[in-house]
Specification:
Distance between the termini: 22 Å
Helix content: 10-25%
Order of helices and strands: HEEEEEEEEEEEHHEEEEEH
Number of helices: 4
Structural class: alpha+beta
Radius of gyration: 22 Å
Strand order of the largest sheet: 10-11-12-13-16-15-14
Largest sheet: 7 strands, mixed, barrel
Number of strands: 16
Shape: elongated
Length: 299
């Protein structure tokens, strides 16, 4: 995995940015404090908490003071994940949490991480107008730009995943459309993942697409509870945005078109995967994606 930590100079830019009062921050507890029955304390449910810029004071030392909202009694958190945007790039760090009268105190560490270096917008064009606009984000259960491996699938799902894999490989041999087949591992991982049965804030709300796999030839998207009937061979456009590792300020946008090569589903059709093959992509973008995916120079 690429090193997504900011350099010392970049940290100073971020510190100055926070000192200038330009950005809200969000705190989420990461402590494992649970009750005896394995359920987190109700006090933890007040998180995450967003703090407006005017409620934040930052010192040159990296010490950050946050005014506690009057409607919240923030307790029982000893370590938090702090998230914010720096010029549209998502950043986060982990900090111990202290209290000073009516303020929370956190500390900007020497190392700051990027939240994710890729996102996408899926669309199709009709008479020159872009429609659909589905947001695509990385799936947090596997690493993009790392060679997929079988052990990334949870052990309890591997038996079912193996049966799907065997089925998909046989279909691929007949249809000759799976390429090197590496994408089948994250596909099997996604469709065998246990459904989240917890209540949502809004029932039936449309969810973002997940990016499961990407290289210089194809991209695989995963969808929970699909509400659109995606048809094989239909063509779409996709805008991909990458944070540039060398700078927290810049990003690189890549535009591709692709057709849906194969639609994979679990038996309940509650999860589907779109295995998509590019139909147009700039040569310099092919090079960029190839080198990110393979860690080798494009020649």
């Amino acid at each position: 995995m690429e090193n997504n930590k900011l350099s010392g100079i970049e940290r100073q830019l971020v510190l100055q940015y926070l000192m200038d009062g330009n950005v809200p921050v969000t705190l989420t507890p990461i402590s494992n404090d649970k009750t005896d029955d394995g359920v987190k304390s109700l006090n933890s449910q007040i998180f995450p908490v967003a703090f407006k810029p005017e409620k934040i004071t930052v010192e040159k030392s990296g010490k950050i003071y946050l005014e506690i909202p009057s409607e919240n009694n923030i307790v029982n958190a000893d370590t938090v994940r702090v998230e914010f945007y720096f010029n549209r790039v998502g950043l986060f760090f982990i900090s111990k949490i202290d209290y000073d009268k009516e303020k929370i105190v956190i500390y900007l560490p020497e190392e700051i991480d990027r939240i994710s270096d890729i996102s996408g917008i899926l669309y199709f064009e009709y008479e020159g107008k872009k429609e659909l606009n589905e947001k695509c984000i990385p799936w947090n259960e596997n690493e993009l730009f790392e060679r997929p491996i079988w052990k990334s699938i949870p052990l309890e799902n591997q038996h079912l995943a193996k049966s799907y894999l065997e089925k998909f490989v046989e279909e691929g041999k007949t249809q000759k459309n799976i390429g090197n087949g590496l994408q089948l591992i994250p596909i099997c991982n996604f469709i065998t993942t246990q459904e989240n049965e917890s209540l949502e804030a809004v029932q039936g709300r449309k969810k973002d697409m997940f990016i499961l796999y990407i290289d210089h030839e194809r991209i695989v998207l995963g969808i929970e509870n699909p509400i659109i009937n995606y048809i094989e061979k239909s063509e779409f456009g996709l805008k991909l945005s990458f944070s540039i590792k060398e700078s927290p300020i810049l990003s690189r946008d890549i535009y591709v078109t692709f057709f849906i090569n194969k639609v994979y589903k679990n038996d309940k059709e509650s999860r589907i995967c779109l295995d998509c093959v590019y139909t147009s992509v700039q040569e310099e973008d092919i090079r960029y994606l190839y080198e990110k995916a393979t860690k080798r120079l494009f020649v």
